[in-house]
Amino acid sequence: MTAGGRTKAPWHLWAVGGLSLIWNAFGAFDYVQTQSGNMDYMRRMTEGMGATPEEAMAYFQGFPAWVDAFWAFGVWGSVAGSILLLFRSRWAVAGFALALLGLAGTTLYQAVSETPDWASGGMSQIISIVIWSIATFLLIYAISQRRKNVIR
């Protein structure tokens, strides 16, 4: 324990924080490229997916505003959570919670809307499970570190 009442940061805090920032930076990059309509990016991302870049871009840009808002909460909440974790701020918990809320909103939309097969089956389902698993882990990890007074 240090003078300020904060427990010394374990090595894994830096590993988890750094890896989560790299992981979530990819999500932020994907969000920015999709929202800005970057067709070169979409061409690379749709290779082997069964959709043309134009179809994929039309799908993502056709999201209702509330879905775009949830997507933004998910992306930027996770980036903020990662940065706040590295700064050892208790607000990392809120960032990761916001990220899960955003993920829940976009997942709900995909579950109740007419989602194209390329965006809802096979590899997309695996990616969704991975994203949910990592986002849930990060929230639980941040809560754990807060309870141990590592982040305050």
Can you give keywords for this protein?
152 residues; mainly alpha
Can you walk me through this structure?
There is one protein chain. The chain contains seven helices and no strands. It is mostly helical. The protein has one domain (11-147). Helix 2 (39-46) crosses helix 3 and helix 4 (65-86) runs antiparallel to helix 5.
Global morphology:
elongated
- Our count of domains comes out at 1
Helix-strand pattern, N to C? Answer: HHHHHHH
Give the DSSP E fraction (strand runs of 2 or more residues): under 5%
Radius of gyration: 17 Å
- Roughly how many Å apart are the termini? 13 Å
Name the poorly predicted regions: none
Largest sheet, strands/sense/barrel:
none
Mean of all residue-level pLDDT scores: 93
Transmembrane segments: 12-32, 69-87, 94-112, 124-143
Keywords: Membrane, Transmembrane, Transmembrane helix
Quick summary:
The chain crosses the membrane at residues 12-32, 69-87, 94-112, 124-143. It is built from seven helices and no strands.
What order do the helices and strands come in, and which of them pair?
Blueprint: H1 11-35, H2 39-46, H3 53-61, H4 65-86, H5 91-112, H6 117-120, H7 123-147
